Amino acid sequence: MMRPTIANRFVQGNAVKFMSSAPKREYLLLDYRGANNCVAVITLNRPKVLNALSDPLMQELNCTIAEAEAQPNVAAIVITGSEKAFAAGADVKQMQAKTKNFVQVYKDNFLSGWDRVSFSPRVVIAAVNGYALGGGCELAMMADIILAGEKAKFGQLEINIGTIPGAGGTQRLVRAIGKSRAMQLCLTGEMINAKQACDWGKSCHS
């Protein structure tokens, strides 16, 4: 059962919860909450690697989003992680396993299909506590709304491994906080906290 995190607080009140009867998921949890089960809550569940985003996880996320969209009562989808990490970035080990050359990662379409979240016809909310870094930050920005808990930390740390935000982060970050601040984060690898993200227009507080 989920802890009383930001995602739980969002769907409290008239909550009617049941676990999905879909086949067992390896990397995610799905349950429905709210009046008439109108909110689908998807929880990233790779705690040992701080919810690092791998191809299998993202494929499972895409399928789970499609499953939630197929439910007639679902009006909103909440994507969340743990108190420690929303998602700490792309799974670098998987990238390294593919090739030691990070440039080749993009040529091999490692990130293909990662933007499914942004095409959902439902309202998508990223409920962020803990780290949302690199690909995790980009995943949060694909949502319509980011709700940031007090311990949320955002950052594009790709520069630390000699690459760039490759899942739309360079575009979405500019739209959210402006070119200069986006360049600052991408070129320095700095992290910002929930208050700063809210002040800059990247997120809303819970």
From TrEMBL:
Pfam family of the protein (one): ECH_1
Entry keyword Lyase: yes
GO biological process: fatty acid beta-oxidation
Domain of life: Eukaryota
Presence of keyword Lyase: yes
Molecular functions per Gene Ontology: lyase activity
Keywords: Lyase
Family annotation (Gene3D superfamilies): 2-enoyl-CoA Hydratase, Chain A, domain 1
Gene Ontology cellular-component terms listed: mitochondrion
Family membership: Belongs to the enoyl-CoA hydratase/isomerase family.
PANTHER family: ENOYL-COA HYDRATASE, MITOCHONDRIAL, ENOYL-COA HYDRATASE-RELATED
UniProt name for this protein: Enoyl-CoA hydratase
Organism, as annotated: Hyalella azteca
